[in-house]
Amino acid sequence: MLELTGTVQKREMKSQLLDSMELEREKGITIKLTPVCMTYKGFSLNLIDTPGHVDFSYEVSRSLQAVEGAVLVVDATQGIQAQTLANVYLALEQNLQIIPVINKIDLPASDVPRVSAEIINLLGCNQEDIIKVSAKTGENVDQVLDSIIARVPSPRQSKQFGMRALIFDSYFDDYRGVVLYVRMFDGVLHKNDNIEMMATQSKDIALEIGTLRPKMSPQNELHAGEIGYIVTNLKATREAKVGDTVTLAKKPSQQSLPGYKNVRPFVYAGFFPVSNDQYKDLKEAIEKMSLSDSALQYEPENSPVLGFGLRIGFLGLLHMDIIRERLEREFKLDLIVTNPSTDYHVVLTTGKEIDIRSASDLPDVTKVSEIREPWATGEIIAPKEYVGPILDLIIKKRGIQKNISYIDTRAIIDFEAPMANLLTDFYDQLKSSTSGYASFNYELLAYRAEDLVRIDFLVAGERIDALSVMAHRSEADAIGRTVTKKLKEVIPRQNFEVALQASIGARIIARETLGAYRKDVTVKIHTGDRDRKAKLMQKQKRGKARMKRFGKVDIPSEAFTVMLKRD
């Protein structure tokens, strides 16, 4: 599309042009939304390229607020995926005009009739509404542009509200300050206008404005219906939140635009620098990243073993992996990441409710009346021959299968399961039990009271808070045994015997023993005197007993990630 409309010269074209992040190119996924403005047949078309993965659905919901239509691209070889369904429902909620497109029709494995039938079943559209394209060869891509002009309504504006623009993304530039991506709804914005954010009430100057083609293209004014950028003088994006309305400071609008709901993270993990000297760098790095990622929430955390760090909230495990890799690559940080967990609602015997984000925060069991854990509703799409293994996996994860429906050769399985059980290795096990053909989408359902316990792990009799996990009582013994075995593999042997234990309160549920290194103290004796040998052995035994009492075990960073992959 960029090539057809002449937005990007042929010599500058490259694959994944809008995925500017190194990680996006490596993994072949879109992480950050990217706006671009194209001119075609006298029309100005504003496109926002959004991610498809469920963990980045907040990026999609922000984009959908700023547009009039959506192009739904479905792979001709794969068909409809679970995240496709989720994003279609988001677009339908916004009453957007959806244009279905089937891509990769040039591949030998493509099955256009089957995928067309799936799309018709999902959207209720006609066969002729579906455009069949090959993005590689450029076949029929012009039809997509023509149908956008024909089907998508042009932006409406109202004169009564004054100048209003919606901030749908923002990022921090080291040299220029905060840059806002906005969709103009009403009025005109001129360069150097004084602007005001309606929610935060912070005021600033529009130092530079313009459109993205896809590089910044400065202009003197932005009109209603356009998508563009505003370079401000602001030092922190907290002053210009995503979802806020920009208006003129001289003639402020009386009514703000409907923003979108704040996203709530439900996966929490502790991020600790390997060296405590890097704590300040970690905090600054997370602050910078939270400027462009509104789903990132963090608070300081202190651990007796790991020192100072941050407890960070994410939208899912992929989101967590991406953030960790970006921190390590872009900011050159060495990190220890603790086991991810969800948040729990704890009702105390006094009737007070508290929210805990880490197992180590759980109050004394005698003071707890009930613990509620988050449950998620999930949707799996897979070829129907894999229904048996999928149902088996759902039951293993304490899930409840709700409904099965069929679209052609595919089954859609709806189920409910505890969030904590979907966090560790559910996705990996799903992929392996379906030969990689299943796709999975989930969202938070509700908090339910369950028989939950805290499992503590003791190394040489000392409780390690960062390893503690919450689990259902029925699964506690198995988790205790698995984790102590894994700890035995990753913690190096010491000069004294080390006990690795899992406990619920005062009751030990699993134990592994890390054998001691034995130094041969009899090597310096040249005679075969048994008494001298026994004397030296006794001295070594007393030394080891003293070591066991006072010795400290250095726990490597791998020990804190043993729960990420249990198998």
Unreliable segments of 5+ consecutive residues: none
Tell the overall outline.
Answer: globular
Question: Can you name the CATH architecture of the largest domain?
Answer: 3-Layer(aba) Sandwich
How many angstroms separate the termini? 44 Å
- Find the CATH topology of the largest domain: Rossmann fold
Total number of helical segments? 12
Number of domains: 4
Task: Tell me the strand order in the biggest sheet.
Answer: 10-9-15-6-7-14-11-12
The CATH class name of the largest domain reads Alpha Beta
Strand fraction: 25-35%
Tell me the number of strands: 30
Structural class: alpha+beta
- The H-level CATH homologous superfamily of the largest domain, spelled out, is P-loop containing nucleotide triphosphate hydrolases
Give the C-alpha Rg.
29 Å
**Mean pLDDT score, rounded?**
82
Let me know the largest β-sheet: 8 strands, antiparallel
- Give the helix level as a range of percent: 10-25%
Describe what this molecule looks like in 3D.
This protein has 567 residues and is an alpha+beta fold. The protein has 4 domains: 10-151, P-loop containing nucleotide triphosphate hydrolases (Rossmann fold), CATH 3.40.50; 267-337, Elongation Factor G (Translational Gtpase), domain 3 (Alpha-Beta Plaits, 2-Layer Sandwich); 345-450, Alpha-Beta Plaits (2-Layer Sandwich), CATH 3.30.70; 453-561, Elongation factor 4, C-terminal domain (Alpha-Beta Plaits, 2-Layer Sandwich), CATH 3.30.70. The chain contains 12 helices and 30 strands. Strands 10-9-15-6-7-14-11-12 form an 8-stranded antiparallel sheet. The longest helix is centred in the C-terminal third of the chain and has 21 residues, at 530-550. The mean pLDDT is 82.
